[in-house]
Write a structure and sequence with these properties.
291 residues, mainly alpha, 13 helices
């Protein structure tokens, strides 16, 4: 479920980003239509027309920045939600097997480590390790082996041998270090679901977007903003925060991610409950004990 949420959140961010060109075009057309009406208004002097045109450009520019500001807030919220949900899939630890299976594994794993210490060749040590890895049928146990790889690998590297192993035939060899690296990388792959792999892809893209959260990426949009609103406003289309810090009177209402708000409120409620352990004068109702 978290993978689907992560995917949907990333797709929402992409939709916002892709709407940039259409949004700019709509504002530019509306502005052009209003400027045309002003130009054809015979009641205005040339000086009056220029004044009204400047006011109209300013009005449209600020509205564009306000909309961009709210869109970016939703964009950032969607990207961060995609990261959060993807990480739930990737970093949720596998379930521990039953005590009997875990005990058998621990005995076998200890025996393997001892055998590797006394291995007479790198090749025999690697074959013992590979044979053990191939018997793993549980992600929790595979992770245990992976977590201890920094302890296991040096035993193979210092075992007698020339540091290479045959691969696919006697004439084709690779370094034992590379072979161990591949084994380490592949340990968990048999247990990775489609959701896990999908979450990894989502996380990679979302983290990239989080580092550069611009919604107006196209040079065409940036050039159109300069043409429509002037450099004074166009330079802020990807930095609306700075603009509204300079002109707080124009700051729009913030985007509210209702789901994130619920999560934060729940976290605050839980934190408040745990305050009672640290301060006995607080109870679940938030009031001090009555005297």
């Amino acid at each position: 479920m978290s993978y689907q949420k992560a995917k949907a959140s990333l797709e929402r961010a992409r939709v916002i980003e892709q709407s940039s060109s259409g949004m700019m075009l709509a504002y530019k057309r509306n502005l052009a239509a209003e400027l045309s009406k002003i130009e054809s208004d015979r009641r205005l002097t040339e000086e009056g027309k220029q004044e009204v045109k400047a006011e109209t450009k300013q009005k449209h520019a600020i509205e564009f920045l306000q909309k961009s500001h709210t869109m970016k807030q939703e964009y950032v919220a969607s990207v961060k939600k995609a990261i959060r949900e993807a990480e739930k899939v990737i970093y949720t630890p596998p379930r521990k097997p039953d005590a009997t299976k875990l005990g058998r594994f621990e005995d076998a794993f200890r025996s393997l480590k001892t055998e590797l210490m006394f291995a007479t060749t790198q090749r025999s040590a690697l074959e013992k390790l590979r044979g053990f890895v191939e018997t793993l049928d549980d992600p929790y146990l595979a992770k245990r082996v992976r977590d201890d790889f920094a302890e296991i690998a040096p035993q193979l590297l210092v075992a007698p041998g020339d540091g290479t192993i045959a691969k696919g035939g006697p004439d084709l060899k690779v370094s034992i270090r590379a072979g161990l690296g591949s084994m380490y990388d592949d340990l968990l792959k048999p247990f990775q679901s489609d959701d896990f792999r999908g979450a990894g892809e989502v996380l990679e893209v979302a983290q990239m977007l989080d580092e550069d959260p611009r919604i107006h990426r196209s040079p065409i949009v940036n050039d159109a903003a300069k043409e429509a609103f002037g450099t004074e406003y166009a330079r802020y289309i990807n930095d609306t925060q700075t603009f509204f810090e300079l002109h707080p009177e124009h700051t729009p209402a913030s985007f509210i991610d209702e789901e994130t708000e619920r999560i934060n409120q729940t976290a605050e409620d839980v934190a408040w409950i745990y305050k009672d352990d640290d301060n006995p004068t607080l109870n679940l109702g938030g009031k001090g004990d009555e005297e």
